[in-house]
Structure formats: C-alpha cells, structure tokens
Write a structure and sequence with these properties.
Largest sheet: 6 strands, mixed
Number of helices: 6
Helix content: 25-40%
Shape: globular
Distance between the termini: 7 Å
Length: 188
C-alpha cells in the first residue's frame, strides 16, 4: 500500500491512548502522521489524559503523558492530506469552538476523504455539521450530539467500529484494533 499523509486534530487533555496508539500504529504502517493543536506550533507539547473503565457510572480520568506536536496548526494546508483522525478525551469539547478546526473537518468530508473519530471526537464532527444522515458510534454520553445533529447513534459496544461512507467511528480506545483496521482499509 502506498504511504498516505494523515492529519490528527488534538488538544490539551486529548485521551492518551486515542492519540498515542493510532499515531504509532499509523507510523508503523508507513504513513506520515502530523498532529496539530489550535494555537500551538510544532515542538510544543500538549497534555494527555488517561480515561479508564473501572466499573463506575462513567470513565475515570488520570494524568497521561505529554505529547510533542510535530506540525504547526496555522501552517498546515488540509488539502495536502489524505485522511483525518479526531481522537477523544477532553480536547474535542473546546477545539470544536475553533472555526478553523471546523473548516478542516468540512473540507475532508466534502472531498470524501477518510475521517476517523473515536469517543468524544464525534463532538468535533457534529459541530462541523457532517453527521447528518450518517450512522455513527461514539462514547454513549456523546450520543445526543449525533442525534441532535441529524445523525443516528448506534450502540456497537466498546470494542467494535462502524463505517458509514468515509467515516470510521468507535466508542473508545478498546476498539483500536477494529477502527484502525477499518480506517486502514479506507486508506487503500
């Protein structure tokens, strides 16, 4: 398979596994992966958070690692990329307020390029108005974001992934094997 250029939209307190694991896996497959964050430059760091499922009513949150960005938000041209990844965690709730983030997502979608969204990443897709008429998965607490924006949330559990046209969605990091495999298929 030919190497693809993949853009990742992240921010402080992005979910650690949902950034680190896909970043490393996609690199391992030979793709070029650039991670950006609004208002930050290549070489700067973002903090991550570890969300774990320990039997409580919702996930627990613990400090994660620092991740060094390898691209500058204000310098990227999304037209140079083949696919987009939007990990979850706390970051989506505030990066979705950035109009440039929404433009990037809309541009990928308008060109039918693969877009992967994990967990709370769906908040960015919903804010960009690209879930209407689509069936998506996400963390169950984000289901209203899908449904209120004209999409259909499907409960597929935490270890599965769902494809609807160019979108690959999953509820959380336990679905990494599934969504990464499905995303990689869309990249071919």
């Amino acid at each position: 398979m030919m190497s693809k250029k993949i853009l990742v939209l992240a921010g402080d307190f992005v979910e650690d596994y949902e950034l680190m694991v896909p970043f490393q896996c996609l690199l391992m497959l030979g793709h070029k992966v650039d991670v950006i964050c609004p208002d930050k430059k290549a070489g700067e760091q973002i903090k991550t958070a570890i969300h774990d499922f320990e039997g409580d009513q919702t996930y627990t949150e613990k400090p994660g690692h620092n991740f060094t960005l390898n691209a500058t938000f204000d310098e990227i041209d999304e037209n140079d990329y083949d696919a987009l990844v939007v990990p979850g965690g706390r970051a989506p709730e505030y990066i979705r307020l950035n109009q440039r983030v929404l433009e990037i997502v809309k541009n990928f979608n308008s060109k039918n390029k693969p877009i992967a969204s994990i967990c709370h990443g769906i908040q960015v897709l919903a804010a960009a108005n690209i879930v209407e008429g689509r069936t998506c998965s996400c963390y169950p607490a984000c289901a209203p974001d899908v449904n209120l924006n004209g999409g259909t949330w499907k409960d597929i559990g935490f270890e599965e992934a769902l494809v609807d046209a160019n979108l690959v969605t999953a509820a959380a990091w336990p679905a990494h094997p599934q969504w990464l495999a499905k995303f990689n298929e869309l990249l071919k």
